[in-house]
């Protein structure tokens, strides 16, 4: 097969490090071998080689403290992402996501005034929504704003939440619950894993959602002035009596005097869902709000009034927060295939975010030996090397979106036998000119993906590097960014809140779509 090198430069012009390029045509050789094609200097031949691919069991556990829920974006600002919901299907079983956060006062030793009484408390969540897909708008021209009984107009706009799972199950309904945490959650710098369920026996409030978020705008009839505005969010009402007892009635007492006392007095919140099946959705913890509305006595010119005051707690910033994930693999099909066999491989590969399985891939010694002989005897230099992996068209035939976010790292052993992890040699050698992955036929069954491992293979075949202990680890996630680099580091990824899962074909010699190493090599004319 002869490849046209001019296409390489077109591809390079749209490269983004760490991203996925989607094609529906045959892949091209990568830039490591492009010099062999200049001026028609070589012909390329593609060959296929078996691989050892297996499931890596992460024990359904991953680090999910505040540090791992953060995503540093290129501007230098920091966003955060967490997951709520539940999803149950036959291949992977049940996965349910909850969220914990500490609560802090806006300032300590607060003064709530005289005869303060809580009117209401609300926890506001900002889910990731499809703001370009407005579902409905309702307008109430006769609305009366309760604080002051003001004639007003209320406009509510409804948007669908971005979901993964059974978005239409039970009409898209999920029941969100907020509970008070009674166990001390330590500090923001402490490591927390996703199997940690802090004790939270006391229900503070709940709300049933139908898979949507709403924005609200309330304006005065008299002059059009804004009375209330909120972006697309979910507002969960909480117990006014609990906040009366634990906050207002503690005015002037040690519990409210400093942060150390307060986070042991009011230890935090747990947000979860009641259901075992439905869908998962992401929200941004740094946009959460916990708002308490209360009234107190105000004396002016001898007259006493009771205006409403809004007090907003701190549920973001330097607070400790973490994710908790529950799994039930009983009777899941993956139990029949995901053995983690590093010698011959597994027939099917079950990749899942949020602490589920990763994929391990090793070169086979006999295949490496064949390539070494070609190089030594025929001067056949490797132009391109791809790990090609297909989704399983029988085990994963459904309407769920095919994944587009992947990370790949290489695992080696140092001189002392200790396993080390790093970005692949292709990342480190090509930098910003590197396309780690191309995805094909995402709208079809099966889809397939090509992971570039050219430099890693060339190091072994042409430079004599050791390969017995090397393997690649693939996860359904993406590398997070930093202000100075498209990749913050091999261990900075979105695994902690990646909702995807997919079944791939592994080392199954009876399957035409088995995972393979696709090598293009060339010899001088």
What is Rg? 28 Å
Runs with pLDDT <50, length 5+? 1-19, 34-41, 72-76
Portion of residues within helices: under 10%
Q: What is the number of independent domains?
A: 2
Query: What's the β-strand tally?
Result: 30
Class by helix and strand content? mainly beta
How far apart the termini lie comes to 14 Å
Counting DSSP H or I runs of 4 or more residues, the number of helices is 6
Strand order of the largest sheet: 1-26-27-23-30-2-22-28-24-25
Sheet with most strands: 10 strands, mixed
As a percent range, the share of strand residues is 35-45%
What is the average per-residue confidence, as pLDDT, rounded to a whole number? 88
Shape: elongated
How does this structure look, described?
The chain has 525 residues and is mainly β. It folds into two domains: 6-60 and 330-524, no CATH class; 66-73 and 80-328, no CATH class. Helix content is 9%, strand content 41%. It has six helices and 30 strands. It has helices at 6-12, 240-246, 259-265, 365-378, 425-430, 454-461; strands spanning 20-23, 42-56, 70-72, 78-80, 82-89, 93-101, 114-125, 136-145, 150-160, 163-165, 174-180, 202-209, 212-220, 226-238, 269-273, 279-283, 289-300, 303-305, 308-313, 321-328, 348-352, 358-363, 381-390, 407-413, 419-423, 437-440, 448-452, 471-475, 501-505, 516-524. The strands form five sheets. Strands 1-26-27-23-30-2-22-28-24-25 form a ten-stranded mixed β-sheet. The chain starts with 5 loop residues before the first helix and ends with a strand. Mean pLDDT is 88; it is low at 1-19, 34-41 and 72-76.
